[in-house]
Each structure stands twice: as structure tokens, then as C-alpha cells.
Amino acid sequence: MLRICRKKGIKSTIKYANNGCTRQAKNAQYIAGNILNREFHADAPNEKWLTDVTEFHYYIGIEKHKVYLSAILDLYDRRIVSYVINDRNDNALVFKTFDAALEANPKAHPLFHSDRGFQYTNRVFHAKIESAGMVQSMSRVAKCIDNGPMEGFWGIVKRERYYGKRFTSRETLVNMIADYIDYYNNKRLQRNLGVVTPIEKYNMYLQAA
User: Which residues, other chains included, contact 3 with Cβ-Cβ below 8 Å and sequence gap of 6+?
Assistant: First the structure.
């Protein structure tokens, strides 16, 4: 089999080690318990949201640059509720992602789960969560599986569109991310959803309600 793959130029995508596991912010202003407790099943949309930030690289010549993707994932249908791409991994990145999710789902009051990154342990962010009528939950330190489906989404994006490629402009990289999230939500069938897309699963619930 290996000989045939080499002859045909077929290469597999390697799942790289995740070095971004949950760490506690140095000056955490608010720490929530792990209320989600790995209960990754949800009975309805907007019942449980997960969130995280990951980074991507692009190159201009030999100079490496970064962009950061912040996203919110719904555990019922695994759709990406909102996302923001920025050059800085800061509070504004996470706050904008949250605000976009709330604007698109003004009646949503989900359990909101994240790691213990500095943005999520920020007192202002916790106030935003409470003001929206949500309950905040956080992964334990060094327990990536506590936010497993979110970590899983990062792996899907990077294996299918990022690893093994070299992006030579910010625009190309950002367009790839945006196009992939649109594809993931609207066209990528998921077996654990019943071989439908996240948006189809979401719409099926709305039609049945």
C-alpha cells in the first residue's frame, strides 16, 4: 500500500501535536468552575456554546506573520455561531466574537464554556456573560478534553485546509479560513449529526419546533 501511495503521489495529513492546551491566565480576574463537565450533548440549539482562539501563520518572504481565529461553536448542531479573525490575540478579539454571536442570537442564554485564557478570565468579559443571561464554565488547567469539540474543530480546519500548505499573503489565509467555515457550516456532512450539515441540523430543529 505504501509503495502504491508513493507511486501515485498520495500523502496523508499528519495530525500535529496540540501545544495550545488549557493554561491559566497569569492574572486571572475571574475563574469559573467546569460546569460543562464534558457533557458535550445538547438537546437544542443555543443550549451550550464552546469557544477558543487558535493561530495560523503566513509568510512574506522568509518573515513569518500570524493571524488569530476566535470562534464559538454550538454543541447541538456543531455549527460555528460566530467567528472573528484578527492580527492580535487580545480581549477585543474575543469580545467581538461574543458580541457577534449575541447579535445573531439575541434570545440565546447558553452555558458558555472556554479555557482559562486571559480573555475569558477577564472581569469585563464575565460581566458581558452575566449581562446576556448566560452561565460561564471553564476547562480545568491542562485538560484539553474539557473543551474537546472545540479543539476538534481546530483540528478539522487545519488538517483539511492548512497543514502542508504555505500561505504567502494575509489575504489568501484569511479568505481560506472564511471560505472553510462557510463550507463547514453549509456543505460539510457530519456523520454524528445524521449525515447532514450543521446548518441543516439547525434548520431541522427550527422546523420541528
Answer: none
